[in-house]
Amino acid sequence: MDTDHLMTQQGMRDYTNEQLATLRNDAAQIRQLGQIVRERLAAQVIEGDKPGSARRRARKMGKRFDKVAELLQKAAAGCEGINSGYKYDVLKLPERRAKALEKKQARRQMRALTRVKARAVVDRSLTESAHSLAAPDTAYGPPVTPPQPAAPPPQYVSPQPYSLPTTGAANQPLPNITDLFPEAL
User: Fold this and answer.
1) How many degrees, rounded to 5, is the angle at CA 181 between CA 176 and CA 185?
2) Residue 57 falls within a domain, yes or no?
3) What is the per-residue pLDDT for 138?
4) CB atoms inside a 10 Å sphere around CB 172
5) What is the distance between the alpha carbons of residues 117 and 72, in angstroms, rounded to a whole number?
6) Is 86 exposed, middle or buried (0-12, 13-18, 19+ CB in 10 A)?
7) Quick one: which of 14, 86, 127, 183 has the most CB atoms within 10 Å?
8) What is the pLDDT of residue 75?
9) Window from 53-67, 69-83, 116-130, 162-176 with minimum mean pLDDT
10) Residue 151, in any domain of the structure
């Protein structure tokens, strides 16, 4: 086997096609052999068999052959996956990277243009603001300053915010709770 030829697209395709054909052929032969063994075992009666034992034994052995044939089919599918994976992951990788680099550069250029446009808008706005502040518009007359509101007059707070108790009713002692509610006892 020439490994240099194997590492090309055609070489990998040839190798996987060869393995694919071999595995599929083997799977077909195993299935045929399984059918032959199944029929022979179903017809063979071993001493001491109960009715249906031979067919059961034949099915059991046939399942093993079918399992091997199924695994060979999966291996054939794996060979096909090897070829497609080799093409995508190895052979087409430089092309995909080049495309990704082109897209990245295009995005960078678009971002640079956006930054230039934004910078121009900000510069224009700052220039207009600076001109309007440096030379106020005289078409409407001198700028009018809003009148300052007068300070409110001072408010004095009373030194005693509550009134002091007076003599008379306010000096009476508080009643006891039992005087007010005799049934509370």
Assistant:
1) 90
2) yes
3) 56
4) 7
5) 63
6) buried
7) 86
8) 93
9) 162-176
10) no
Count how many domains the chain has.
2
Distance CA 111, CA 107 (A): 6
CB of 69 closer than 8 Å to CB of 27? yes
The pTM assigned to this predicted structure is 0.51
What confidence tier does 68 reach under pLDDT thresholds 50, 70, 90?
very high
User: What residues contact residue 86 under an 8 Å CB cut-off, 6+ apart?
Assistant: 9, 12
Burial letters for 3-36: b for 16+ Cβ neighbours within 10 Å, e otherwise?
Answer: eeeeeeeebbeebbeebbeebeebbeebbeebee
What domain range includes position 122? 94-132
119 in the same domain as 84: no
Measured in whole angstroms, how far is the alpha carbon of residue 128 from the centre of its chain?
A: 46
Q: Of 42, 37, 63, whose CA–CA distance to 53 is shortest?
A: 42
Both tokens of residue 127?
Answer: 């220039």
Residues 39 and 109 in one domain: no
pLDDT class for 182, splitting at 50, 70, 90? confident
Q: Where are the alpha helices (DSSP H) in the chain?
A: 3-6, 9-43, 53-86, 93-134, 177-180
